[in-house]
C-alpha cells in the first residue's frame, strides 16, 4: 500500500492481483454546508476501477469496474451492473475502518479503508403530536407492521441503475433538519434523524430526485405520515415522509423530475416539510452528499 497526498484529503492507493483502487477519505470533519462537502469530494477515474464519492459517515460511493469483478464491503456483496457500475455507502455510525474485498480472475484481495467520523448536531423539537412521542400500547402493533414494510422495501436489490444519472433536490426550500442530528421531541430524547428536512409550503410538488420504481406507498404511517419509497437500483432507495398526497402507486416507474407527491405535515411533524432519506439497504445515508453541484 502507498499513500498519495492531495488537497482533496487522503488518497489510499491499493495494489493487488493486478488491480489498482484509489479511495478517498478525510480527517475528522463536521459537514454542515455544501462548501465543506465540496472540499472533501473526490473523483478518481482509473483504468481498473473509478471511484467517485466520500469515505465518510453518511457518504455514498459509486464507481465503475470490469463487469466480471466482484466487490464486497465487510462481507456484503456490492452489486455490479452489466456495464460495471456499482454503488455503496456508509451509515451514520459506521465504524472507522472497513474491509473491501475485490475478486478478479477468482483471486480475492482484501483492503482496509478508513471512514471519516462526523460531528452531529442536537436538535430540540417542540409541538409535535404527543402521541407520536409516547405511543400508547395499542399503537405498537401498527408501528411494528409499518416498520417491517419499510424494511422490506429497502431490501430490494434490483438491477436498475437510475442512480448513475445523479440526484436533484425533490423540492427546494429552507433546510430545517439535517442528517444525523440527535433529536429530542417535546423534551423526550429520541433516535437520530436520518434524512434532510426541507421546509416548504403545504402542497408543494415533490419531484423524483432520479428515476426508479415505486416500492412502497402508505397514506398515513404512525411516525412518518404519508410515506413513499422509490428503488433506484443496487439497494439505493429514496424515502419521502410527511406527504400530503401521493401521485404514484407501487410498481410505477418514475422518471427524474416527475411529480410524485405533495408536501404535507402528516405524522410526527410540526409543520409542512419534506423529510427526504436515502438508504443503501440498511445503511442510512446523507442525501445532501448526493446533490453537491446544486
**Count of distinct structural domains:** 2
Number of strands: 24
Termini separation comes to: 35 Å
- Helix and strand sequence: EEEHEEEEEEEEEHHEEEEEEEEEEEE
What does this structure look like?
- The protein has 294 residues and is mainly beta.
- The protein folds into two domains: 2-114, no CATH class; 122-290, Glucose Permease (Domain IIA), CATH 2.70.70.10.
- The chain is 9% helix and 45% strand.
- It contains three helices and 24 strands.
- It has helices at 34-39, 130-133, 139-154; strands spanning 2-6, 9-16, 19-25, 42-44, 50-53, 60-64, 70-73, 76-78, 85-89, 97-104, 107-114, 122-125, 174-177, 182-185, 188-192, 196-199, 205-207, 212-221, 225-233, 236-246, 253-254, 259-263, 273-280, 283-285.
- The radius of gyration is 19 Å and the shape is globular.
- The chain starts with a strand and ends in a 9-residue tail after the last strand.
- 40% of the residues are buried.
Amino acid at each position: 500500500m502507498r499513500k498519495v497526498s492531495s488537497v482533496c484529503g487522503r488518497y489510499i492507493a491499493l495494489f493487488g492481483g493486478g488491480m489498482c483502487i484509489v479511495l478517498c477519505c478525510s480527517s475528522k470533519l463536521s459537514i454542515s454546508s455544501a462548501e465543506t462537502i465540496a472540499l472533501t469530494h473526490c473523483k478518481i477515474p482509473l483504468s481498473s476501477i473509478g471511484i467517485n464519492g466520500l469515505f465518510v459517515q453518511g457518504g455514498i460511493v459509486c464507481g465503475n469496474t470490469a463487469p466480471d469483478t466482484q466487490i464486497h464491503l465487510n462481507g456484503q456483496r456490492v452489486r455490479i451492473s452489466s456495464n460495471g457500475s456499482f454503488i455503496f455507502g456508509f451509515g451514520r455510525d459506521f465504524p472507522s475502518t472497513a474491509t473491501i474485498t475485490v475478486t478478479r480472475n477468482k483471486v480475492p484481495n482484501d483492503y482496509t479503508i478508513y471512514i471519516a467520523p462526523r460531528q452531529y448536531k442536537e436538535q430540540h423539537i417542540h409541538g409535535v403530536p404527543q402521541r407520536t412521542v409516547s405511543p400508547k400500547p395499542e399503537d405498537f402493533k401498527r408501528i411494528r407492521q409499518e416498520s417491517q414494510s419499510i424494511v422490506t422495501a429497502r431490501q430490494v436489490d434490483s438491477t436498475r441503475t437510475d442512480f448513475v444519472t445523479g440526484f436533484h433536490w425533490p423540492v427546494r426550500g429552507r433546510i430545517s433538519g439535517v442528517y444525523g442530528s440527535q433529536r429530542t421531541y417535546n423534551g423526550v430524547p429520541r433516535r437520530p434523524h436520518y434524512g434532510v428536512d426541507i421546509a416548504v409550503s403545504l402542497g408543494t410538488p415533490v419531484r423524483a430526485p432520479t428515476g426508479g420504481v415505486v416500492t412502497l406507498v402508505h397514506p398515513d404511517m404512525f411516525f412518518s405520515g404519508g410515506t413513499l419509497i422509490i428503488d433506484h437500483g443496487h439497494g439505493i432507495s429514496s424515502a419521502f415522509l410527511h406527504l400530503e398526497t401521493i401521485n404514484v402507486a407501487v410498481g410505477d416507474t418514475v422518471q427524474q423530475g416527475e411529480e410524485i407527491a405533495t408536501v404535507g405535515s402528516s405524522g410526527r411533524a410540526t409543520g409542512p416539510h419534506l423529510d427526504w432519506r436515502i438508504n443503501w439497504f440498511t445503511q442510512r445515508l446523507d442525501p445532501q452528499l448526493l446533490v453537491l453541484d446544486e
